[in-house]
Amino acid sequence: MSLHFLSSITGSFSQGAAENPTVAMIEDAYKDLGINWRYVNCEVSPSNLSNAVKGAKAMNWKGFNCSVPHKVAIIEHLDGLGDSAKLIGAVNTVVERNGLYIGENTDGKGFLTGLTDILDIKGKRVLILGAGGAARAISVELALAGVESIGIVNRNVDRGRDLVSLLNQNTSAKAYFIQWDHTVAVEQNIDILVNSTTIGLYPRTDQHVNINLSLVGSHTVVADVIPNPPETNLLKAAKEKGCQTINGLEMLVNQGRLGIRYWTGLEANTDVMKACLNTIFA
Ligand code: NDP
Fold this sequence. Notes:
Elements: E1 8-14, H1 22-33, E2 37-43, H2 49-58, E3 63-66, E4 80-81, H3 83-88, E5 93-97, E6 100-104, H4 107-116, E7 125-129, H5 133-144, E8 149-154, H6 157-170, E9 174-179, E10 184-185, E11 192-195, E12 211-212, E13 221-224, H7 233-240, E14 245-246, H8 248-264, H9 270-280
Parallel strand pairs: 1-2, 1-3, 4-6, 7-8, 7-11, 8-9, 10-12, 11-13, 13-14
Antiparallel strand pairs: 3-5, 5-6
The protein binds NADPH dihydro-nicotinamide-adenine-dinucleotide phosphate.
């Protein structure tokens, strides 16, 4: 009789790993798929990142996620990058391909999946709050997917302008910068508004983004990347205006599904993953 006690291993390297619910969601998805795969959530400091990658290779890990603060630093430890990870300049998912570790980025792609489920984004006008890692990933994927224009609203001018240049030089979307030193009025012609800052993230759940929604109509889709709490002040205000909303759990589930697809080649059941997160954040 042949025995099968060796699991295929995936996982995550980050600091503050205890706050990350991804492990619960992915392990539920693996169980539902009936495969002998595991996901191990690891606390890894920047000085140990190189050894962590060597360890993963030595133990034949099939891949891993990396989160704060490793999304950029991981690149020098990898064997190559996928196209959008190269453009974004950050990696959140590493995939083993023929013994090589290749960096991909599913943050923006996961966000895009949730959005395209409810509207056709071709030719749409987008306003993005923030210019950090999540904003870079989301804006690059939206631009590559054919939105018409992207406004980047950011407090730090250099970071905001860098992102605008990146989008204008590498995609057909028209990108522009708004410095966030005042209450920014969201124009009526904006089709998609995205908060990709950390404003409102637990424990500072009472924070509000400094914008004015008075011109916004119900045609605007409003999304927030904050997974915890799923219903931010921005999403509450958008619902009151009759807007469709997308919360950060949607992005988390979809990028997890894409990670599982990269690693196993299988399609995970997103209902199982959502149920897991809903229990955690209930
Ligand atoms: P970064 O640190 O790279 O970027 C943070 C951004 O928030 C910057 O643009 C920063 O502006 C802005 N910001 C922070 N505080 C303020 C403030 N008080 N006023 C104005 N702007 C502010 O973080 P990430 O991009 O990596 O993460 C952003 C969020 O995305 C996090 O909450 C994270 O949880 C979420 N996320 C969610 C995912 C999901 O699957 N749901 C996946 C990945 C991330 P400035 O440049 O001026 O400092």
